[in-house]
Design a protein that fits this description.
Blueprint (H helix, E strand, L loop, with lengths): L23 H14 L12 H8 L3 H13 L3 E2 L9 E2 L5 H13 L4 H22 L2 H12 L1 H6 L3 H15 L3 H23 L7 H19 L3 H19 L8 H5 L1
Antiparallel strand pairs: 1-2
Helix pairs in contact: 1-3, 4-9, 5-8, 5-9, 5-10, 5-11, 6-8, 6-10, 8-9, 10-11
Length: 260
């Protein structure tokens, strides 16, 4: 059974002369949110029973339930209606901001070329970090993902396997900020990859596939040898070349054309 942490006192406003005093529900939500952020409540833990929370925070049932709804809207807890176990902590990943970020990019008229430029700024740097600072386990995981590409090619799943490799490369660098940004762009990239590889003018030939595998293998070799500068430079060249091919015929395509 997931554990339940002792509860701290309710967080009070940092600014005593604030224009608007926070609602009771906001204060309770802030306290529980802080516990999740600081790791006192972990993914899978249940919040204490409703009666215990009401007693501890000295709040009414409506105020407490409003606080839980705030956390639910933040995707920090999961509430199963009718369940006797109460709200369960769910620590979100990049997907929680991916959809809103995609919407903002679509509304601003962002093009796929712009997204590709951002990815070229992120992934090569992550490759360098992975090479210099990554664990042996992370290096082996990168190689495993590359080893799965041939079977994905044969089964028609090259787009999915490739996007997974790109996403995982950043995750394996263990840089939380880069991982978050890359995760925000993942849905756009994945949908574009699928559309591009289905297009007649972007069919991947055997020669192109062979070149792709050679490039992936070179990346793994440089990462395993902990040659960070070389790994970063190689992955930047790879993404610039691949980006040019993937954007062929999509030069003026906007993000909204891909995800909506």
């Amino acid at each position: 059974m997931p554990r339940q942490e002792p509860l701290p006192p309710t967080i009070t406003p940092a600014t005593p002369n604030a224009v608007r005093s926070p609602k009771t529900a906001e204060l309770v939500a802030d306290t529980l949110r802080r516990m999740i952020v600081e790791g006192q409540l972990k993914d899978g833990d249940f919040l204490p029973y409703e009666a215990d929370l009401m007693t501890h925070f000295q709040v009414s049932r409506p105020s407490l339930r409003e606080a839980v709804r705030v956390l639910e809207s933040d995707r920090l807890v999961e509430v199963r209606r009718g369940s006797r176990t109460g709200a369960r902590v769910r620590v979100p990943g990049p997907e929680v901001v991916a959809r809103p970020a995609g919407l903002l990019l679509a509304l601003s008229g962002t093009t796929l070329a712009d997204v590709m430029t951002a990815r070229i700024g992120i992934e090569p740097y992550a490759a360098g970090i992975l090479a210099k600072e990554g664990t042996e386990r992370a290096h082996r995981e990168l190689q495993r993902l590359i080893d799965e590409i041939p079977s994905a090619w044969e089964s028609g799943r090259l787009a999915e396997a490739t996007t997974e490799l790109h996403r995982s490369l950043v995750e394996l660098s263990d840089n939380a900020t880069l991982t978050m940004i890359a995760g925000m762009l993942h849905e756009i990239f994945a949908k574009h990859m699928a559309a591009a590889l289905m297009s007649a003018q972007n069919v991947v030939s055997k020669a192109q596939y062979t070149k792709l595998i050679r490039s992936y293998s070179r990346l793994s070799t440089l990462v395993s040898a902990r040659k960070g500068t070389e790994a970063e430079a190689h992955w930047r060249r790879h993404m610039e070349n691949a980006g040019a091919a993937l954007l062929k015929g999509y030069e003026k395509t906007g993000v909204r054309d891909i995800i909506y």
